[in-house]
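hey can u check if this looks right to u? its 136 residues, i copy pasted from the old doc so theres a chance i mangled smth
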Amino acid sequence: MNQQLIDRLRAFHGHLGPFAMLGYRAGKLALAHLQAPSHFGIRAHVLCPPQTPPSCFVDGIQYGAGCTMGKGNISMEASEGIEVTVTVDDGGASVVIRPRPEVYSSFAEWMKEGSDETAALRVLGMTDDELFEPLA
């Protein structure tokens, strides 16, 4: 377990929850797939419900990919589902990351069994294949 990651995500988001961790994992997966640097030269467009806790996915994307509201390289659109499209500015390569609905629909149950933090740690311990649909 990466305690520094956990502490920093908690500090950035205000607490450690599964949707923020899922967003973090999605942001990191997008960067790895695109072989893109974080923070600059990329942009993210997030689709998700506009209310918490699912909207916490956006904070995870900001932390994982480095796209932030202040830099203007992240946008959010209200949607029933959850996904992020990350695009490289130079060349336009992009990837769509879609969390598996059966995973995030289990978050309420996982939090009831433990806490927000234990659910987030469960997300951290899962493989990309367990968390996300095949990349598009």
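The chain has one domain: 3-129.
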